[in-house]
Amino acid sequence: SLRLHGTEEDCSDRTSSQCIRFRAQFTAFLQCFCTSEVQILPVCSDRIVLIMGARSQLWSIAKMSVTGGVIGVTISDRYVTVVAIKGHSMHPTMTATDSALRGDIVLAEKACLDQYKFSRGDVILFKCPSNHKEVFVKRLIGLPGEWIQLPASSEIIKVPQGHCWVEGDNAARSWDSRSFGPIPLGLINGRVTHIIWPPSKIGRVERKWPEDRIPPF
Amino acid sequence: EPSSPSAAAMSRFVRRLAGIPWRQIAGEASSVGLLMAQGLCAVHVVSEHVLGVAFPRGPSMLPALNMAGDVLLTDKVSPRRGWVGPGDVVLLLSPEDPRKIVAKRVLGMEGDEVTYPVDAGNSDATKTVVVPQGHIWVQGDNIYSSNDSRQFGPVPYGLVKGKMSYRIWPPSRIGSIDSKE
């Protein structure tokens, strides 16, 4: 119901004919906008209570969902977002199965995108450099400006400024910087901080250095 | 019965404090705060996902864009949908420093052959490259003073953040940015 505040200076006597005429005219005016019957009840001298039908309920549900959606998108863009893992490149830290409900679901924070300050061993989300529609999750192995050793050969390469070197924990099934080279930091979407599903794996995702890698210098 | 004038003043002050409608003030403040939060979220969603504004600076896009003072409308829908092609002026995160946003013109999409001057102003030598999958080649219109794909190579399409096709300031140059091939 909608409450309208108004003063009816010439309606000190609620039963006066002027008052009744005013209410009748106002009811007719509002009836044009409402699908169901409009009634105006003189509850007290300066309040008019409208009784509207189901249409206004649908409208308020629509308004609440749009507001909720806008706030949700903002939070997901700037603070924290939820991502379902597909693919096996981060096994056993994170696993995926064929159905989204039984694969791991993780929490990723976006605060790191303010200054792009990362640490070695962080697990990050980033857009694939050869297909901007796909999002990958891998571990950050080399920061900008560092020299790192390629695992297969004994080559040493320098990670260029503004780029980083990423590798998956499951080296055998991971398509990562060993194939597509260092990626620009601008492709990063967020940093994974926690696993929130399945219940047996709930907890922080720790910064970890792969065991058999020489730390960069 | 208060025993001294200061105690009397104290009890008057406490009574006045109790008379302020704290609950009503808190209620009104939180509803105003909620409204402001909703407004800020709406501004974020629109400027990040629909239409934003950009203030490009620097000489690399002369004469299409001024060195400073231009205000451009940024279309955020097109890059996400892949509606970006050669000749478009785009905003992208710099591959040399992700905190910098640069404005450049797209010269080639994935698979295109791009021929570019290697050392503009000093020699006429050119080089031809094929743009790799998922990447684009960007160059500033002012090739004599532009740090672009000639220096940092083709960039992944995922770095593109917006397409600028309309200028709204200064008034003498309001209109669309020419799309050169």
From TrEMBL, chain A:
It is a single-pass membrane protein. The keyword Cell membrane does not apply. One of its GO terms (biological process) is protein processing involved in protein targeting to mitochondrion. CDD domains: S26_SPase_I. The keyword Lipid metabolism does not apply. The active site is at S89, K138. One of its GO terms (molecular function) is serine-type endopeptidase activity. It comes from the Eukaryota. Its main location: mitochondrion. One of its GO terms (cellular component) is mitochondrial inner membrane peptidase complex. It is found in: Mitochondrion inner membrane. Keywords: Hydrolase, Membrane, Mitochondrion, Mitochondrion inner membrane, Protease, Transmembrane, Transmembrane helix. Residues 61-150, 157-197 form the Peptidase S26 domain. InterPro entries: IMP2 (IPR037730), LexA/Signal_pep-like_sf (IPR036286), Pept_S26A_signal_pept_1 (IPR000223), Pept_S26A_signal_pept_1_Lys-AS (IPR019757), Peptidase_S26 (IPR019533). Belongs to the peptidase S26 family. IMP2 subfamily. NCBIfam families: sigpep_I_bact (TIGR02227). This is Mitochondrial inner membrane protease subunit 2. It comes from Aegilops tauschii subsp. strangulata. The lineage of its organism: Eukaryota, Viridiplantae, Streptophyta, Embryophyta, Tracheophyta.
From TrEMBL, chain B:
Its main location: mitochondrion. Pfam families: Peptidase_S26. It comes from the Eukaryota. Catalyzes the removal of transit peptides required for the targeting of proteins from the mitochondrial matrix, across the inner membrane, into the inter-membrane space. It comes from Aegilops tauschii subsp. strangulata. This is Peptidase S26 domain-containing protein. The active site is at S60, K104. Keywords: Hydrolase, Membrane, Mitochondrion, Mitochondrion inner membrane. It is found in: Mitochondrion inner membrane. One of its GO terms (biological process) is signal peptide processing. Belongs to the peptidase S26 family. IMP1 subfamily. Residues 36-117, 126-169 form the Peptidase S26 domain. Gene3D superfamilies: Umud Fragment, subunit A. InterPro entries: LexA/Signal_pep-like_sf, Mito_IMP1_subunit, Pept_S26A_signal_pept_1, Peptidase_S26. GO terms for cellular component: mitochondrial inner membrane peptidase complex. GO terms for molecular function: serine-type endopeptidase activity. The keyword Nuclease does not apply. Heterodimer of 2 subunits, IMP1A/B and IMP12.
